[in-house]
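Lab channel / #folding
Pinned by the channel admin:
"Please post every new chain as: sequence first, then the structure tokens as a reply. Keep commentary short and put observations after the output so the thread stays searchable."

First post following the new format, from NK:
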Amino acid sequence: MTTLLRPAGEATHPGRRRAGFGLTLILLRVLATVHALLVLSQPVSIGQYLSGLYDWVGVHAFGASMVILSAMLLSVFTIGYAVTGGRLWVAAVGPALFLAEGLQIGMGYQRNLALHVPLGVAIVVATLVFAGWSWNRAAARPRSGR
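Reply from TO:
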């Protein structure tokens, strides 16, 4: 049985894959990519503000709302991916990003830039690494039945 989601050379018995694995993988990939794009828009919007376009702070605040909303959805899809046979550690990624981004928003509104800026950098890096991983062949392999 050949599918677009199965890496080359994978056995025909796909381990602990359950119904819905392919759909949750596709949704995870799409949402991880959208989330990464939203996260990447944040340094751009605040850069515009720092360049003198002061109305962009509103764009930055709106972007933060979209980032946290997408993180909530990503939390659901990471858990769904794990439940349907994906890697278990992925179930922690969505909630961890959601919590970090909630803290990030709080630090931004408190103007605590000593934490807001480095946390933002960490969130960008983690989000990009996770989005990249989601498109990797390893993400398409169900966890083994050990």
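NK: Residues 21-50 form the longest helix (30 residues).
TO: also worth noting, Confidence is low (pLDDT under 50) at residues 9-14.
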